[in-house]
Structure to design on (378 residues):
């Protein structure tokens, strides 16, 4: 066998050759100091190349990546785009308002007047809703207080015997009503 | 421990923690690769972040029949090529021969080959290789780093670059011999 091919030496060292090719190389190496030297040279080279140091990552790098993905900051260009859109809208509105021949001052006065009228109406409406809600809350509060007082008075007056008789009678009446209703409904179905 | 496919599925279902596990797994290999390609640590860290953002936004288009790591390195490679294009750095192409000198190299072990590696201590040799790497054409450097720093297989590299395995093996060989010879020029 002639001396080894350099590419094959690397593939041999990286275990990328077939078992037969490996065997042939190993056999050749036993009797060829020149190729042994070439293999050792490249073995050492690969050893160094495959143990190059890692690029140093700062502490918290993973968190930085996650923050960049899940809480993206609005870029300057996005702010500029938003501002541009707003400016174009305002200019467009002004053009539409000024087209019929109104003056800028007139448009502004009308705009400010309308704004204040709406603001005043909205404030009055909010105050009225607030007053109404306060009144309803007060009424509900008073009603619940009266109901609680009536209940406590009733439990004080009525003894346990009367309470038991009353409950039994109520249950009886309810059962009677249930059967009457059932009978009426069945009669209705037949009709 | 989940595999990449499960982590991708969970991320697509809205589990942030799953993507965090992907980031933790790949941040170091990715930084090691990008660092050697751009040559500056801070820039490499920025690019590593950018690649993860791209990976996250492209995740719905990921097809599980491809290995996730391969897909991730492909995104990283495209990011670096875009950067070079913007900076008007003309990256060497794998389709073209690297240089006439490389093509003329003997493939057989030379008669009296000088040892350029064994005279250095291992730590010194690593340091020399790091410096020499910067002088290697980008296309060869990329394949060398993937193979010998990131430990990608020739099949994975061929898939990323869309080249035959034989071509990739030959280019990696050229890269290694070129580094060795450059080490010889740098005593």
């Amino acid at each position: 066998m002639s001396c080894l091919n350099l590419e094959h030496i690397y593939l041999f060292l990286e275990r990328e050759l077939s078992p037969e090719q490996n065997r042939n190389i190993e056999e050749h190496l036993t009797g060829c100091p020149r190729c042994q030297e070439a293999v050792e040279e490249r073995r050492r080279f690969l050893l160094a190349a495959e143990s190059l140091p890692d690029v140093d990552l700062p502490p918290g790098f993973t968190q930085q990546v996650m923050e960049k993905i899940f809480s993206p900051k609005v870029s300057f260009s996005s702010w500029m785009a938003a501002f541009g859109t707003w400016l174009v809208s305002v200019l467009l509105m002004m053009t539409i308002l000024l087209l019929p021949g109104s003056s800028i001052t007139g448009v502004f006065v009308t705009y400010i007047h309308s704004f204040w009228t709406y603001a005043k109406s909205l404030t009055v409406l909010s105050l009225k809703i607030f007053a109404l809600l306060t009144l309803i809350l007060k009424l509900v509060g008073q009603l619940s207080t009266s109901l609680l007082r009536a209940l406590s008075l009733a439990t004080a007056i009525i003894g346990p015997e009367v309470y038991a008789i009353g409950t039994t009678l109520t249950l009886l009446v309810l059962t009677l009503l249930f059967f009457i209703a059932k009978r009426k409904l069945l009669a209705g179905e037949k009709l | 421990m989940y595999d990449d496919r499960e982590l991708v599925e969970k991320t697509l279902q809205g589990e942030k923690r799953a993507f965090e596990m992907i980031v933790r797994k790949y941040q170091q290999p990715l930084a090691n690769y990008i660092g050697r390609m751009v040559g500056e640590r801070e820039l490499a860290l920025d690019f590593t972040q950018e690649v993860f953002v791209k990976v996250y936004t492209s995740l719905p288009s990921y097809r599980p029949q491809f290995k996730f790591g391969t897909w991730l390195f492909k995104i990283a490679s495209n990011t670096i090529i875009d950067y070079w294009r913007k900076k008007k750095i003309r990256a060497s192409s794998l389709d073209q021969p690297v240089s006439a000198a490389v093509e003329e190299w003997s493939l057989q072990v030379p008669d009296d080959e000088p040892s350029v590696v064994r005279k250095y201590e291992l730590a010194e040799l690593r340091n020399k290789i790091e410096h020499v790497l910067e002088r290697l054409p980008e296309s060869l450097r990329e394949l060398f780093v993937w193979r010998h720093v990131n430990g990608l297989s020739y099949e994975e590299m061929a898939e990323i670059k869309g080249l035959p395995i034989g071509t990739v093996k030959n280019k990696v060989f050229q890269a290694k011999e070129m580094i060795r010879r450059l080490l010889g020029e740098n005593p």
In short: The mean pLDDT of chain B is 89. Chain B has nine helices and no strands. Chain B touches chain A through 48 residues (CB under 8 Å). Residues 136 and 179 of chain B are 7 Å apart (CA to CA).
